[in-house]
Structure prediction request, 179 residues.
Amino acid sequence: MHAGLAPSAWVGRWAHLAPAGGSVLDVACGSGRHVRFFAERGCRVTGVDRDARALAPLAGMAETVVADIENGPWPFAGRHFDAVIVTHYLWRPLLPAIVDAVGPEGVLIYETFALGNESVGRPYNPDFLLRPGELLQAADGLRVLAYEDGFLADPDRFVQRIAAVRQGARSHGPRRYPL
Prediction:
């Protein structure tokens, strides 16, 4: 896979929690590096972005939804996915809808910039930087498998990231989530 299209290391680490053939929602997917990654893994992928030109090349491999999710309605009300992926995107009013889109036994894999990033580059507007513990609060009700809040180098950035699952009622004991 082309380096510019490679999935984030965080998404790659937790992708095994999305079942083959499962449904995946990539929020604010841009040019679709995670859409492609999950489609190649045999998942049924939906990518949403406001940029129709960025979505056009993805039409053959995924359901594509052109929507301004910051100013218009959430296009997935009532829909649930086996995995919801978000990277490099934050619009706080959507956090509850994003978490709600995680279906029973589904996974949320989320990674974006955190406070402190303004000291090393963009984004530097605090409206687009997670506050300490904010992803943990947003994922309340999900089982958190992994959470990180700190600094990463090359390129320098401050991030928060989480992998969390919605546990469903199971009659055969607790599900094992391999780390």
About this structure: The beta strands are 23-27, 44-49, 63-66, 81-87, 102-113, 143-152, 157-165.
